[in-house]
């Protein structure tokens, strides 16, 4: 499926490179801009399938790109947003996941863009309403070891970490070299230990990831 994309990145070289990558994979970049104000304007104009933005951008050269993304998500709840950052900052992840619903959000370090197929897969996952979190975010959270996630076994930690990255059951099974049935069993145990029963409102997988992200906050 071809996606329409609005892209914001102040580095012209990287911006052009991202446009080229997305186009090569069959997606259409309807606007590629270099500042946060233009991002808001173009995203509201084009109503894209997904917004991709750098965090630090003009005009303030602070976290203008992130704040623009949050404003867009508030104006259009559920707008899929993938944020790129040079540095790991967990507060950015928290803001994205907790404003306007948990679905359709991603946070990747810019180094991940070099893995072109994985980057495009993350864009597509976010556009489809999933999550895509940088593995380094997941690794740092694993080291926190706070309740209720500390109740999980090491293997359940691994499964939940991959869920936090946005992987589906088949992808998790392939990554861990286990059967799909084993993955289903682990996910069931995770949901039980986090007390996310079937009568809990919301997407239980996303709620599990939020519990994971919120551990020790």
TrEMBL record:
InterPro entries documented for this protein: CheY-like_superfamily (IPR011006), NreC/VraR/RcsB-like_REC (IPR058245), Sig_transdc_resp-reg_receiver (IPR001789), Tscrpt_reg_LuxR_C (IPR000792), WalR-like (IPR039420)
Keyword RNA-binding: no
Keywords: DNA-binding, Phosphoprotein, Transcription, Transcription regulation
Pfam families attached to this UniProt entry: GerE (PF00196), Response_reg (PF00072)
An individual GO BP term: phosphorelay signal transduction system
PTM-bearing positions, type 4-aspartylphosphate: 54
Source superkingdom: Bacteria
CDD domains (UniProt xref): LuxR_C_like (cd06170), REC_NarL-like (cd17535)
GO molecular function annotations of the record: DNA binding
Domain HTH luxR-type, residue spans: 145-210
Domain Response regulatory: start-end pairs: 4-125
Protein name, UniProt field: DNA-binding response regulator, NarL/FixJ family, contains REC and HTH domains
Species this protein is from: Streptomyces zhaozhouensis
């Amino acid at each position: 499926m071809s996606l329409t994309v609005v892209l914001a990145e102040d580095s012209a070289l990287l911006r052009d490179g991202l446009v080229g990558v997305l186009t090569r994979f069959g997606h259409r970049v309807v606007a590629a801009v270099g500042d946060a104000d233009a991002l808001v304007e173009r995203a509201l104009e084009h109503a894209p399938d997904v917004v991709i933005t750098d965090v630090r951008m003009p005009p303030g050269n602070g976290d203008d790109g992130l704040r623009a993304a949050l404003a867009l998500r508030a104006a259009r709840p559920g707008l899929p947003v993938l944020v790129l950052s040079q540095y790991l900052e967990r507060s950015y992840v928290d803001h994205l996941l907790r404003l306007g619903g948990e679905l359709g959000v991603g946070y990747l370090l810019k180094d991940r863009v070099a893995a072109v197929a994985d980057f495009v897969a993350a864009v597509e996952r976010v556009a489809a309403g999933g999550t895509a979190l940088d593995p380094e975010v997941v690794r740092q959270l694993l080291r926190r070891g706070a309740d209720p996630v500390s109740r999980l076994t090491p293997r359940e930690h691994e499964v939940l970490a991959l869920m936090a990255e946005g992987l589906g059951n088949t992808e998790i099974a392939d990554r861990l070299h286990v059967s799909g049935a084993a993955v289903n069993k682990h996910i069931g145990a995770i949901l039980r230990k986090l007390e996310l029963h079937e009568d809990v409102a919301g997407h239980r997988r996303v709620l599990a990831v939020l519990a994971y992200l919120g551990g020790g906050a």
